[in-house]
Every structure is written in C-alpha cells, then in structure tokens.
Design goal:
single chain, about 140 residues, alpha+beta, two-stranded antiparallel sheet, 3 helices, 6 strands, about 15% strand
Length: about 140
C-alpha cells in the first residue's frame, strides 16, 4: 500500500456523512452509518447486552474488558451500526485477522469462521460462554 493511500485512509476517519438512527424511546444513537468510526456510548451498551463479552470462540472476557470491533472495516466503507459491530477483548482484537479468522453477523449473533488449517470446511462458530441459550432466527 502506498504512502499516499495510507494518508487517504487515515484522513477518512475525519469524514462526516450524516445518517443516524435513534432508539425510539430514549432517542439514543444506535446506528451511525458512516458519520463516525467509533461506536457511541448507547451502541456500546447495546453490544454489551447483545454479546455479553468477547465474541471470539472460547473467550470468557466480560464487556468491561472488551473493545468495539467493526466486522467489516469502517475504512473499507462499512457502517458503524450494531450488525457490523462486535465486542472483542484486546488479545483477540489484535490477533484474529493475522491468524486467518473472520467474523459475520447473522441470526442476531456474531459468528467466527476459523482458518482452513483449523477447519477445512470453515464452519462458523459461536462463543457460547456468554450466551448458551437457543438462537432466535
């Protein structure tokens, strides 16, 4: 990646494209679209309630030890909206991509797809340490 492209991507954090969705009763911001890269306080609370902690399979870190993560990078054009956000502890946030893991949001949960070296079929996995109950589809 060229220095010029890195500079453009770095400046993209300053972009202001307005599209915002508010919670019906509280008027708190739940969907920021492309207006902001960082999740709002209301979104962080919603993630804590939805994810229960680090979403990476097998991790037991609680929400207070987690960071907000864009499932598809904000710099690549995806929004700061709840279906594109997940909680990850700093350890997994720093390492999942370089080890070949990827995430997706479906059925109200964050699923992790392991690299082929771990699972040749790359079947999606849930972290059930925080939410062992049935899925609502």
């Amino acid at each position: 990646m060229s220095c010029r492209w890195r500079a453009v991507r770095g400046l993209s954090d300053e972009a202001e494209i307005v599209r915002t969705v508010f919670h019906k009763q509280t008027r708190e911001v739940l969907s920021l679209g492309r207006t902001r890269r960082l999740a709002s306080y209301a979104q962080t609370l919603a993630l804590a309630a939805r994810d229960g902690g680090c979403t990476f399979p097998g991790c037991s870190k609680s929400p207070k030890w987690c960071q907000r993560h864009h499932i598809v990078d904000w710099a690549n054009g995806d929004p700061t909206d709840l279906p594109n956000l997940a909680l990850l502890c700093p350890f997994h946030h720093a390492r999942f991509a370089r080890h070949g893991w990827s995430a997706e949001y479906k059925h109200g949960r964050v699923w992790w797809r392991p690299p082929k070296i771990i699972d040749p079929e790359q079947k999606p996995i849930l972290n059930i340490r925080h939410r062992a109950g049935p899925l609502i589809t």
